[in-house]
Specification:
globular; 10 strands; alpha+beta; disordered N terminus; seven-stranded antiparallel beta sheet; three-stranded antiparallel beta sheet
């Protein structure tokens, strides 16, 4: 049976994204709730900071938090950028991982840029055969849950740093560990988690207006920054606004323009990936129009940002969020539907 989406047009003042207005045109989010999109759970479309459409599937509402999966990677990169802005980390210096600093260890050549661009060369396997044996699944859900960063850090190189692109959630866990080690020398899991959480809310979530974020940590107090953050739909939209223009509540600058530019600069080894951010990832038949920067996550979590001329002929900034539970073999159809929404608002 085809689900009929619920239309939610309540004000979202906490986001400082403006208030939604009654729809005066065809529903722009309809493609995401079509018959072949039965696993879409929530979606929102923001134009110039104003919600123009917001839907939930039956059983979901503003009360729900949704799992980030890999959209968390982009959030982790934003936090790294804050420490770079503070002068505590350097993009092209060797990554501050003591375990790699032993004489003769080739991993000492891995820079923060390599990690952010997914070109570290570390022997990580995101999806293996069988899938339950992949590094990511083993570390996140089986044998590595107490010390995820130690497992991620402890592997050897399989390529020279900067030589090849390999997408890896464990790489982002290393970035989250770097944030924690930069914030506190403590090895106490509770102290580490508290320091990370306080910093994340002070520098990102609160100024963005994403105050409903709930962060998960492993047994060592490392934030699982590659995949496990839980947020309300409005929180995803608020963070999308930060990815779009670096600004949060009341137009306050949250992420520095130069760091945002880095995040949106293609990796030398992967044109559709920047600094923990996807670039023009969607298939040509799905979009084919404006440049897109997006946070993408497992099972079809998408926070899509772009600037384009709207139907009125003026340029606007857009944030589109689609959250759901889509199998891998259905994601192409989801991405085509995302593209239809993009085309629908841009003419």
């Amino acid at each position: 049976m085809t689900r009929k989406p619920l239309l939610a047009l309540a004000p979202v003042a906490a986001l400082a994204l403006g208030s939604a207005v009654p729809a005066q045109r065809p529903d722009p989010l309809a493609p995401l709730f079509a018959a072949d999109q039965g696993d879409t759970r929530a979606a929102i479309l923001v134009e110039d900071g104003r919600v123009i459409a917001k839907h939930y599937a039956p059983g979901y509402s503003d009360a729900n938090r949704f799992i980030s999966w890999s959209t968390a990677k982009t959030m982790t990169a934003m936090l790294v950028g804050e420490l770079v802005a503070d002068g505590k980390l350097t993009l092209d210096a060797p990554a501050p991982i003591a375990e790699w600093r032993k004489p003769g260890d080739p991993r000492a050549q891995i820079t923060l840029r390599h990690l952010l661009n997914m070109t570290s060369g570390l022997q990580h396997t995101e999806v293996g055969e069988p899938v339950e044996k992949s590094d990511t699944n083993q570390v996140l859900f089986v044998s590595g849950t107490r010390q995820m960063a130690a497992r991620a850090i402890g592997v050897p190189l399989e390529a020279a740093p900067g030589e090849k692109f390999e997408y890896s959630s464990l790489t982002t866990i290393i970035l989250a560990e770097i944030v924690a080690r930069t914030l506190t020398p403590s090895r106490d899991p509770r102290a580490r988690a508290a320091a990370y959480r306080d910093f994340a809310f002070e520098r990102l979530y609160r100024p963005a207006g994403a105050t409903g974020a709930f962060l998960e940590f492993d047994g060592a107090g490392t934030q699982i920054g590659g995949s496990l953050i839980h947020l309300h739909l409005n929180d995803f939209a608020a963070l999308g606004q930060v990815l779009l223009d670096g600004r949060g509540v009341g137009g306050a600058q949250v992420v520095a323009p130069e760091w945002l530019a880095f995040m949106k600069t293609p990796s030398p080894k992967k044109a559709i990936y920047g600094g923990q951010t996807w670039l023009n990832h969607f298939p040509d038949e799905a979009v084919g129009q404006p440049p897109i920067a997006s946070m993408n996550g497992h099972l079809g979590q998408y926070v899509v940002t772009f600037r384009a001329r709207g139907r009125d002929g003026r340029e606007h900034g857009y944030v589109l969020v689609r959250l759901g539970n889509s199998r891998e073999d259905r994601l192409h159809a989801v991405e085509v539907a995302v593209g239809k929404v993009v085309k629908g608002v841009t003419g």
